[in-house]
Amino acid sequence: MTGNILGERFIVISFGESHGKCIGTIVEGCPAGLRISEQDIQKELDKRKPGISEIYSSRKEEDKVEILSGVFNGFTTGAPICMIIWNKYFDSKLYEEYRNKPRPGHADYTAYIKYGGFNDWRGGGRFSGRITASFIMAGAIAKKLLNETLGIKIYAYVIEIGGIKAKIEYTEKLEELTYSNDVRCPDYDAANKMKEKIISIMKNGDSIGGIIECLIKNVPVGLGEPVFSSLESDISKAIFSIPAVKGIEFGAGFNVSKMLGSESNDAFIIKNGKILTEKNNSGGILGGISNGMPIIFRIAIKPTPSISKPQKTIDLSNFKETIISIKGMHDPCIVPRAVPIVENIVACVLADHAIRYNLIPPVIKKEK
Hints:
The chain contains eight helices and 18 strands. By secondary structure, it is α+β, with helices and mostly antiparallel strands. It has a single domain, classed as Chorismate synthase AroC (Chorismate synthase, AroC fold). Helix 6 runs antiparallel to helix 8.
């Protein structure tokens, strides 16, 4: 597997499997002098931790981060930062049945063929949503770096599950409201309806997907390296690295296909001495480069493929059709737990581009 590295200047290397000894990440390129602690990273990890809600996976992992290198006396040193969390609460015996029976909607079959059956199949191995804990460890550093140097704020939140749509108010309380409930939706009424929907689906042995929106404020003009490393390109690549993501749209997204040019174009204006746009149909990115407006995009998350309802598959040991019913500890809806993953993986991309554009120095001056 050679596709476990993200970024050019702020580099993230992800490692570990669902039922392996640990999940971890190495961050290379973080400037020296950034005040960081295990508590800073733990705060982000706790947002995606399993076992804290009836609509989350019942796998009760502590997900306690350990920083092994790159931080000394509370500050980054400029050396590679290695972080791990130990896997402790899992039962690989549940997956013996699926070793030769690929689960529909999972990467079991494609991984089996690509790696000749040598891949770790326990709990999905390298293809499990559990690996996203490594995205958050790296992203926690990136988020703090972006906020302290450029004032960039990143907010992700659920806007739709099962056809139930939230009404979003873009206020300073957006983050507080998002994390005030299990569904990670800032619309309280919609969140309650979404939770009821998830529970009803779960009782029927099924699962459901949804849509997450991400809003990024205070992004300076100039981030992005067209053409193959445009900001949209690199954000999309990172987002599609999250298991279960099946679509992304920026700004007005697919609705631009229904507009006239006079409707979709973002007219330039001057406001408070700054050049902005009257609308934000482009989602804060023009020509693959940030234009100073808030970056906004939405992603589609498919239903969790692990369901207890009977499904058709193939027994690879005898090449015959068979039926499986998946057991184990799974989320009936992965959407809420994906919210902090989105925030943190996109932070890694922005940190990488900010360093490429020389907006973040190689050494952050120590606090007095």
